[in-house]
Amino acid sequence: MADIKSGQPVVDGAAAGNYPGAFRITPETYTTIDSLIKTTKDHVLPDLVETYGDQGITGFLKLTGAINSGGTSDQFDWWEVGRRHSTLAYSGVSISGGDTSATIATAAVKNGVQVSDVVMDKDSGRRFIVQAGGTEEDGGTANVILVRLDGDDLEASDLGSSGELIKLGNMFAQGTNQPIAYDDIGVRKYSNSYMIVKGRYEVNGSQATNIGWVNVGGGEYRWFMKGEQEARAKFEDQREMMLLFGEKHDSSNGLALADDIAGSEGYFSAIEERGIVVQNANTNPMDSFAEFDDLIMELDRQGAPSEYAMYLNRKQDLAIDDMLASGIATGVSAGLPGQFGAFQNDADMAVKLGFKSFTRGGYTFHKHDWKLLNDPTLLADSDFIGVGVPMAQVADAKTGEKAPALEMNFKQTNGYSREMEHWMVGSILGASNATKDNVEFHYRSECNLITRAANRHMLIKG
């Protein structure tokens, strides 16, 4: 038998035992080129999975018809006409002269009436004439003396300990002088400052060249591209949320913000300050015709337009569906036909935009779910349930020009706009104005939101 060197395979098992280092050939000793270099590619799905779907919330303001307008000042001013007529709240009534007259010292009444004005108590309906006091020609005021217009003595039910007086008009004797100037119709000037919102994303040069298994969009496999897309989308969402929830900062209490930031009034703040706030004491959404009827009566008081877009969380959206379904089943909602005036009376157009519409008491409500109120990382489970946006234009009290109820303004002049600025700083990807081995993506917007006639807008809270 030939000499067998150590490590040389032998076929005969008995012979293998006679030679040190010899080994037996068995099936498990075989291998393949595939197992050595793993030529089979891992099965990695190239599509990036959006686990929570489209998380963007931007678009509410544009969907409501808010237009973009350029501004060239640090704030935006507009004028609104107040109520033509007003009520005067009073308290602390004293009766004198054997129940012949009543004296009111409340400042609102003293500043709001003059001799010979006729007023009516809102609760009792009793009419009175101002015998003395009130606004005087020299600008001073005195306690108001009221007597009954019919000449009878006052009764206990004529005036409460507090209440409201309605100004009906006046009644003068022959040969008397004209009254002092008519009441101011209450044109009010409103202002809202611009706010500057900023964002930034950064990637170093090495990471910018790495690719991955997953297509982050448009056939692009570089992860930093997805990061930049998300940073921009997040910035746009945050800008919209600031337009919705921004507040003016009152520094009169001495608590000034850094860099003397004035703040800016957002949509929710405007409604909370001047609008209709519907709040259910039972923390339930509006789910009955009685609740909608109360709302409709308030809309009547505010001179509201006939069409509203309602943006709601899912719970309120479903509650209205259940209310309408219940009404149809019982015949209660016989007056709830679908109207689509805001969509050129085209039901298909409304459906395409995701709206469902119904009419009640002469008002048409187009409802739509609002992602902002359903996202658990934003306003889901908060007190905010929905808003109602009037779908009509309003006239500026000073210029007379028609404008939408909501208007987004951005600083701009001579072709330079600060609506959505985006620039890169770094030494890679064409950004050659810095020495760092990176690139920084910067975002900036200087904007504000104007809510005209906020008294017509509604906020639903739980």
Describe this structure in words.
It is a single chain. By secondary structure, the chain is of the alpha+beta class. It folds into three domains: 1-40, no CATH class; 60-78 and 191-252 and 260-461, no CATH class; 87-170. The chain has helices spanning 13-16, 33-37, 60-63, 107-112, 205-209, 223-245, 267-274, 289-301, 314-330, 347-352, and strands spanning 67-71, 75-80, 87-91, 93-96, 101-104, 117-121, 127-135, 141-148, 162-170, 188-193, 195-204, 276-279, 307-312, 356-360, 363-369, 384-390, 393-395, 402-404, 406-413, 416-417, 421-426, 438-451, 458-461. A seven-stranded antiparallel sheet has the order 3-9-6-7-8-5-4. Strands 1, 11, 19, 20, 21 and 22 form a six-stranded mixed sheet that branches. The chain starts with 12 loop residues before the first helix and ends with a strand. Mean pLDDT is 80; it is low at 329-343.
Short description:
With 462 residues, the chain is of the alpha+beta class. It has ten helices and 23 strands.
Number of helices: 10
Q: Portion of residues in helices?
A: 10-25%
Terminal CA distance reads 98 Å
Note the beta-strand portion: 25-35%
User: How many beta-strand segments?
Assistant: 23
Overall, the morphology is elongated
The main β sheet shows up as: 7 strands, antiparallel
Strand-pairing-aware structural class:
alpha+beta
Largest sheet, order of strands side by side? 3-9-6-7-8-5-4
> How many domains comprise the coordinates?
3
Low-confidence stretches: 329-343
Radius of gyration: 37 Å
Give the overall pLDDT as a whole number. 80
